[in-house]
Specification:
With 227 residues, the chain is α/β, with parallel strands linked by helices. Helix 2 (54-63) runs parallel beside helix 3 and helix 5 (150-160) runs parallel beside helix 6 (178-187). It has a single domain (6-225), classed as Vaccinia Virus protein VP39 (Rossmann fold), CATH 3.40.50. The strands form two sheets. A seven-stranded mixed sheet has the order 5-4-3-6-7-9-8, sandwiched between helices. The radius of gyration is 17 Å and the shape is globular. 26% of the residues lie in helices and 29% in strands.
Length: 227
């Protein structure tokens, strides 16, 4: 049996209810086989993937209101995968990714617990290449800029897996690395705009910050001819 405790929560997103299996709290830890240590995850950061963070609720609510027909979507740093679950229920072509060795098993359990079809999962280490992942029309993530170095690694990872015409949506709870990340994205050819959010209910979901929107599109051959 794993040496960590779990809990189950009922979460409502845009009038739809989801049952989320997560770690009990931030004190949980069990790196059997040292799989997390092998990819640089410390004991202090080990449980972070398995908690339901307020910013993930913000992202889930935001994407639940989008029209994503014919869009291929990637969630980076998915953790428990709340947004991926929402998009799967909407019928979206969603792929989830994370680099924590237990992320896929927690995602799969949440998929089963909500009677959904399996969600494709890919290893998502932002510092390495994953040639099997492919490219996407929309890339989403929540609270993925929590360390300064991630302004660089996340922007490069996104660019490696973006289609020529792509949108990127990141929920940032004012971590402080937004400007550096945006400069990197601009250098890669992405335009941007931000929108503020301030969620104050329920208590455990209180969160404020910005939803960062980035977009890049390359002119088609016909548009070039019509200039």
């Amino acid at each position: 049996m794993p040496d960590y405790e779990l809990k189950y929560q009922k979460i409502t997103v845009n009038h739809e209810q989801y049952v989320i299996r997560s770690l009990k709290d931030r004190q949980q830890f069990d790196d059997t086989g040292e799989l997390a240590a092998a990819v640089g995850i410390s004991s202090a950061s080990w449980p972070l993937f398995g908690l339901l963070w307020p910013s993930s609720r913000v992202l889930a609510n935001h994407v639940s209101q989008l029209e994503l027909k014919d869009k291929r979507v990637l969630e980076i740093g998915c953790g428990l995968g709340l947004s991926s679950l929402v998009l799967q229920r909407m019928g979206t072509d969603i792929t989830a990714s994370d680099y924590h060795p237990l992320a896929q098993s927690f995602l799969d359990e949440n998929v089963r617990g909500n009677d959904l079809e399996p969600i494709p999962f890919q290893a998502g280490n932002w510092e390495t290449d994953n040639p099997t992942m492919g490219n996407f029309d929309l890339i989403i993530g929540s609270d993925v800029l929590y360390e300064p170095a991630m302004a660089s690694t996340v922007s490069r990872f996104i660019d490696r897996h973006s289609k020529d015409d792509v949108e990127v949506m990141i929920v940032d709870p004012n971590r402080g690395n937004r400007n550096h990340f945006t400069r990197n994205m601009a250098e890669l050819g992405y335009k941007h705009h931000f929108e503020r959010f301030n969620v104050d209910t329920p208590k455990e979901a209180r969160c404020k910050g910005r939803i960062l929107h980035y977009q890049r599109s390359f002119p088609t051959a016909s548009s070039e001819r019509n200039r």
